[in-house]
Amino acid sequence: MDILIYEHACGGGFAEGAVSPGILAEGFGMLRLCVANLKAAGHRVSVVLDEGLSRFNPPIEADCVIPIFNFNDAQQAILKACTDIDAAYVIAPETGGTLHALVELIEQNGVPTFNSRSNAIRTVSNKANLYKVLKANKLKTPKTIQVNVAQYTKEAIINEFDFPVVFKPIDGVGCSGLSIVEEASQIEKAIEKIDAELASETFMVQEYLKGETVSVSLLCTGTKTLPVSLNKQNITLLAPNETSAYIGGAMPFGHKMKQEAFELAEAVISCFSGLKGYVGVDMILTDTGPVVVDVNPRLTTSFIGLSRITDFNFADAITNATLKNSLPTKTTLSGYACFSKIEMPKANLDVLDNLYEIPELVSPPFPVQDSQTGCALISVESNSWDEAYRLLEEAKKHVLDIM
C-alpha cells in the first residue's frame, strides 16, 4: 500500500514552535519506528515533516518526505495526499481535539485510517465522559469530579476529597497540566498550571491512588480485542510549581495482576464503539486490584519498546486490525524492552550526526525553538529485565559522553 503517516510533533507542533523537547522525542521515536515497520512489511511510506526539523537530516527512512512550514501547510498536505494514498495513520494528541479533527478530515475524504474511528476518539478523549461511561459499566476508576475554572471553590474540593489529590486537564495527554496537590494552599497553583499549559475551561480533580503505574497495549478490530503487553510506566508526579513528566517505560511487566489488568482493559474497550488499531489503557495496580485512569485511542510511546520485541511486525498488525479485522494468532514477546527520555543540552548538527550512529538512540536531542535543553529517547532490549536496565544505563552514558 501507499501509506501516509502524520505525526503531530514532527509535522505540525514543531512548525508552530509549541512542542516541548520531551514530546518531540516521543513523537519522532514513534514516527521513525512506525516507518521502519511498515517499510519492512513492503509498504511505501510518506511522511509530513517540518522544514525546521528536516535541516537536521533526521534518521528516518521514508520513501517520500512532504515538507511543510506550519500547521496549515500540514493540513493542506494531508488533504492533497488523500488523492494518491491507500491509507493514512495519524499520531497526534487528543488535546484541543487535534487527533479527532485530523482523523475526521481523512475519513471525510474517503481514505481509510489505521486509527480508531473519529467519533470514538472524541468520546474517550473527554475524561469526564470517559469516567461517566466506565462508572456506568461498573468498571473501577478513581473518584473524580469535574470542575469549572471560573466557578470552582476550594471548599467544594476540600469537602469532597482527602489530600493528596491529583489535578489534571479534561483532555490532556501525557503529563501536561498534571499536578499532585498535597494541601489546600496548592489548589490555585494547580489550576493556574492547567490554564497556562492547556487553556482549559474545565479540569478534573481525582483521588490519589497508591500503586504501580502501568498501561496495557491492545490491538483492536472494532469487534475483537487482543491485549499484547502489560507495561511499567516511569512517571514523576510533582507539585504544581514543578513539572510532572513521563520518563519512559519497560515491558513486559511481570506483575501478579497481569491477567486481571488484561481482562479490565478488554472490558474498557467493549464499552466504546469504534476503538480500532492500537489502543492504550492506563491503570494503577492498587492493593485491591487494577483501576483505570485513562484510555488512549492512539499510538502510545510503549510502541517504541514493543515494536522491538514482538514476534510479529507491530505496525503491520495495526494495519491488519483496522483494514482486515484480523489479529495476530499469538503474541509472544522475545525478551524485555525498556526505554527512557534523557534531558540534555541542545545538540548541534555535527554532534547529531555522531548520535545518529548509535543504534539504541531512537530519537536524538533535536534543538527546539524557545527551549534551553534538548531531549533524547533511548530504547534497548535484552533477554532479562535486569540486563535490559543495565544496557539502558550504558546507552545513556554513551550518549552523554558524545554530548
Descriptive overview:
This protein is of the alpha+beta class. The protein contains 14 helices and 16 strands. The chain has helices at 8-13, 21-40, 51-54, 71-81, 98-108, 118-125, 127-136, 154-160, 187-198, 258-270, 302-306, 314-323, 349-355, 385-402, and strands at 2-7, 44-50, 64-68, 87-91, 144-148, 165-169, 179-181, 202-207, 212-220, 225-236, 245-251, 277-286, 289-296, 336-345, 361-363, 373-382. Helix 5 runs antiparallel to helix 6 (118-125). The longest helix is centred in the N-terminal third of the chain and has 20 residues, at 21-40.
Largest sheet: 8 strands, antiparallel
Helix percent band: 25-40%
Alpha carbon gyration radius = 20 Å
- Spatially, the strands of the biggest sheet line up as 13-12-9-10-11-14-16-15
C-alpha end-to-end distance: 40 Å
In short:
Helix content is 35%, strand content 28%. The chain has 14 helices and 16 strands. Strand 2, helix 3 and strand 3 (64-68) form a beta-alpha-beta unit.
Q: Which tags fit this structure?
A:
403 residues, alpha+beta, 8-stranded antiparallel sheet, 4-stranded parallel sheet, 14 helices, 35% helix
